[in-house]
Write a structure and sequence with these properties.
about 700 residues, alpha+beta, Rossmann fold, about 55% helix
């Protein structure tokens, strides 16, 4: 899960629509820093992430029922609605995700009413088309980063030590199991047990089908399909119109000498992007065909090795020899003449000697079959090697194309920014018009994709109805099938249980070792963290020769908690890459969002944590005050910063003391006098000349 941006509208102290916060996610410049005074909105921003994803809030987030900005409510007219939403974008396993959670406030004469929240999600693949998912958004988010784990990645640094409290140990155990995939296996075992119980009743004869009701449902679905097809036609026409407007606006930009060069470059980049996207689709199809045609070869090494062992053993026992065959000996005996010319009469000494070769000679047909199969087995091994080479080649091509598309999109974004901010009003106006057209095209594409998916689902429903109508009562033979299913279910339960036990033990020991390494690198105390077989996290000392639990301070618990999170990210990533465990979430791109992570720590520990976290976290978003940032933290993390933002708080207090922060030689206001009676916060991007 690689976060790319977040945007807010009337969420807590953020009035109106905020600028989009672009989140840094590079290999080196992986840190985004957001500066703000206490009360400016850092905790609100942290909770914006958890609200949109999980509708959850941190412990320090007061008055959770008051989400909507007070100024926006005050300025609204009676009966007028005020929107409040948070929208985030992220990338995960080659797909882009857009998620928006929203609610509304309806203002009355004396109070206001808040509607229930609504969660919307769209997903874009390599082709750039945005589609609504088949699953519920909550389910998809839970598969990427489960809700039970969110507090370990979106947390208030001043309260992070709470995760090692005694009443949190069971929670930690469950969290680690989810990371490892053990919880997935446990659920599988439980579900298999339930399936086993239900198999006895599954194949009972079904009752008479209500044909008329099924036909009415079929007709209703057909009408819905016709309605969607009609809308699809309208969308195609509107897309053609918007494309025409886009072309005309682009041509007008091209005619302006000041924008001509940029517009030409943009057109060139868009052509390249489309070409790369087409190549990407073709390469993915080629990869599918390779896997479909020859993927089975990589599953046969054990079988081919067993075949060679059998052939070797046959030769060792003399059952598979080369040279004289049984068929040749039978031919000599039947003709009663040896190749040397001697007569082979039945019972003669010569006949007896030649007959003995029947025991020594092999079958020519068996030998020929063995030779032919050996050649085929050799070819299978060659195909397996060639298969991996082709897969690696196509996968490398996919990665290269994705990287090229990403670079092109970045350059296109920069061109758009330059045109938007151009001093020539006509140029900036045309670019804004282009932005509106692009947004409209994007919306139409999303609707078109969602409609296409819905059409597919409706057709599936119709197919299912047709099968139901034609379905006959089950026959007795399926009782035998049920018994075979029950046996297979029990076997699967036993195998999954063994896998879980082995996997859990090995990972726990490796995780504990990495946790100790990170904790030792940060803390100067002689203590060691331990993870029990129940996944309980403790801190122990060994000064007396015996391990004893430590009554850790708040600072030590903070360090232990940060070390724990860092070790999980680091070790699960290594584990999943080495073991190729499909049940583990994509740990290689987990973000960490921290609010005030250094507040109660001393200088030495602040420095060590500032050194460690950007190296271990794939993506780090730090919300800090001016005093928390300056000094050793700034010195250690400056080279890892990709993006910076300042939260400017507008105080309605008449005699408020204004404040600022100096970054890269420029002053950015932290506190300013509000121009009205309301308090609110603005987000300002920091510009550095690196």
């Amino acid at each position: 899960m690689k976060l790319t941006s977040i945007k807010l509208c009337n969420f807590r102290s953020f009035y109106g629509k905020t600028p989009e916060i672009i989140i840094s996610g590079g290999d080196v410049l992986n840190t985004t820093v957001i500066y703000g005074n206490n009360g400016a909105g850092k905790t609100s921003l942290l909770n914006a992430f958890t609200w949109v994803l999980y509708e959850k809030f941190s412990a320090a987030f007061a008055s959770t029922e008051q989400l909507v900005n007070k100024r926006a409510i005050a300025e609204a007219k009676p009966s007028q609605s005020v929107e409040c939403w948070v929208e985030i974008n992220w990338e995960h396993e080659g797909k882009r995700y857009n998620v928006k959670r929203q609610c509304r406030v309806y203002k009355n004469k004396t109070d206001f009413a808040v509607t229930k929240t609504e969660l919307l999600m769209q997903i874009a693949g390599d082709d750039g088309r945005w589609l609504y998912p088949n699953q519920q958004p909550e389910e998809i988010i839970g598969q990427i980063l489960p809700v039970s784990l969110h507090q370990y990645f979106f947390f208030d640094g001043e309260r992070i030590e709470e995760i090692v409290r005694s009443d949190k140990k069971a929670e930690i155990a469950e969290a680690i199991k989810i990371f490892l995939g053990v919880e997935v296996i446990n659920r599988s075992i439980r579900h298999l047990g339930e399936a086993k119980k239900s198999l006895d009743n599954e194949l009972k004869a079904i009752g008479d089908s209500e044909i008329k009701q099924l036909l009415r449902e079929q007709e209703k679905i057909q009408q819905e399909i016709e309605r969607i097809n009609s809308r699809q036609t309208e969308i195609i026409q509107e897309l053609e119109h918007q494309q025409t407007l886009k072309k005309e606006t682009g041509n007008r930009l091209h005619e302006l000498s000041a924008a001509k060069e940029l517009q030409e470059r943009r057109q060139e980049l868009e052509t390249q992007k489309k070409s790369h996207q087409d190549n990407l689709r073709q390469t993915r199809e080629a990869l599918k065909k390779i896997i479909s045609a020859r993927g089975y070869t990589v599953l046969l090494p054990d079988t081919t090795a067993k075949f060679r062992t059998i052939i070797h053993e046959l030769k060792q026992r003399g059952e598979l020899t080369s040279g004289i065959s049984r068929e040749f000996v039978h031919e000599l005996l039947n003709s009663q003449r040896c190749i040397c010319g001697a007569e082979l009469h039945n019972g003669s000494h010569a006949h007896i000697n030649v007959s003995k070769w029947l025991e020594k000679a092999g079958s020519s047909s068996v030998e020929e079959t063995a030779i032919r199969m050996s050649a085929q087995v050799d070819e299978i091994d060659k195909q397996a090697t060639a298969f991996w080479e082709e897969v690696d080649r196509e996968q490398a091509r996919i990665n290269d194309l994705r990287q090229n598309i990403s670079q092109i999109e970045l350059e296109l974004h920069n061109i758009q920014e330059r045109l938007r901010k151009d001093a020539n009003e006509e140029i900036s106006s045309l670019q804004k018009r282009l932005d509106e057209i692009e947004n409209k095209i994007d919306e139409l594409n999303r609707e078109q994709g969602a409609n296409q998916q819905q059409l597919s689902h409706l057709q599936t429903e119709i197919d299912a109805l047709i099968k139901q109508i034609a379905k006959q009562k089950l026959n007795e033979e399926k009782q035998l099938l049920a018994q075979r299913r029950m046996n297979a279910t029990q076997d699967a339960i036993e195998r999954l249980t063994e896998v879980r036990n082995r996997q859990e033990k090995q990972f726990r020991l490796q995780l504990e070792k990495r946790l100790q390494e990170i904790f030792t690198a940060i803390s100067f105390t002689p203590y060691q963290p331990k993870i029990s077989d129940k996944y309980e996290l403790t801190l122990v000392e060994n000064t007396s020769g015996l391990e004893a639990p430590v009554a850790a301070s708040t600072g030590e618990n903070q360090i232990l908690s940060l070390s724990f999170i860092a070790s999980i990210i680091d070790k699960v990533r290594e584990w999943s890459e080495r073991r190729k465990i499909l049940t583990v979430p994509d740990s290689s791109t987990f973000p960490i969002v921290m609010d005030s992570p250094f507040g109660s720590l001393d200088e030495t520990h602040r420095r060590r944590i500032a050194q460690t976290l950007p190296k271990l976290a794939n993506q780090l978003i730090v919300l800090v005050t001016k005093t928390q940032w300056r000094g050793e933290v700034e010195a250690e993390m400056l080279d890892r910063i990709g993006r910076e933002y300042v939260l400017t708080y507008y105080s309605s207090k008449p005699d408020c003391e204004q404040d600022y922060i100096e970054l890269a030689g420029k002053r950015y206001p932290l506190v300013k006098q509000s121009p009205n009676e309301f308090e609110y916060t603005e987000i300002v991007a920091v510009e550095r000349d690196w």
